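Subject: sequence -> structure tokens, single chain

Hey, anyone have a minute? Need the predicted structure for the following. Not urgent.
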Amino acid sequence: MKWIRPSKIKGRIPAPPSKSDMIRATAAASLAAGVSKIIRPSLCDDTLAGLGVAAALGARVAFRGRTVEIQGGGRPVKKVLDCGESGLCLRLFAPIAALGKQEMILSGHGTLLARPVGMAEIPLTRLGVVCESDGGFPPLRVKGPLRGGRVELDGSVSSQLLSGLLMALPVCERDSKIEIKKLVSRPYVDLTVAVLSRFGVSVSWDKTRDTIEIAGRQRYEPQRFEVEGDWSGASFLLVAAALAGRIAVENLSAESCQADVRILDALRAAGARVSLQDRVVLVETDELKAFEFDAADCPDLFPPLAALALFCDGWSEIRGVERLRHKESDRAAALAREFARIGGRMEIEGNVMKIGGGALRGGGVDPRGDHRMAMAGAVAGLRAANGVRIEHPQVVSKSYPRFFEDLASVGGDIT
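Reply:
Had a minute. Here:
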């Protein structure tokens, strides 16, 4: 258990490295014939699962201090690919695992087993793969080879399978065209396209029609790849500053394709002072007011923004609740339940979460396996009258293992 008491926050800290960027770079490096060097890697539970899957698919992975070296181009050495609890890892690597003729099984444990993967079956089947899930959930069995071609894709639940197809289809013999319906989380697709470009692979995305054309027979080139700072993890630090002091967070690019860069818009709307200079974001508390925000394309911002809204004057509204149903938990229900335990006022009306600001009593929060719920509760503890006690705090290792240490380093009173 971690107990976060009311604290004054002040300091300068580097952002954690991005797990979204890291997992995509790992996949690309595993497809490149040669050695890629990943600088400032993320080594959270999800990215370690991604490195393990790459190794199982035949890549050679070596840790060299602050660098991970990946020699790609190998053949699978294991049939079962353990994706840990990472939905991105499973959905991204499924098309890559289907490039060969050997049957592969993508599975994991914990919360991943309750996350939907059925959306992979129809598109992969139409591209020549034998694909079967367990009633729409892991494990997912695939047997290729993925041959490329034309396919329609439902992108209404997640964009992660699309990212996997964008990774795998360029190395197929045939050219491909993907027609996407109801695409969510568009910035994450932009991030995938940016990583592909870094490794010498190109795709053509018509964003007005949501069609992507992919030339086959392309080659990934090994690269020296520096992982971006993570806007998702940094959002909790930035909200901590807005609530309880002043923090400068380093290694964050406002030009990033990461969806959660939009935390800056929400902080400004809430009245926090925000400035940027040379990849450093400075946030300082001020008189906070209720705000409105659409998080449909950046659902990972719901937890930190909910914590922020608890201390804003008035009722804030965050749209995009339907995007939270299939995360590590039903995140909307978890936020409402756990914040109510510590005195928060939250209502869910259709696709909108309404949050009343004011004094927060504090108490215990059970994240129930959700890393972002744990971090949101901790940030709320900085202003709660009696602080907040986080049960099972180790869940933050899924994305941000050093979260509590970093928060303490800038003044958080944590025991």
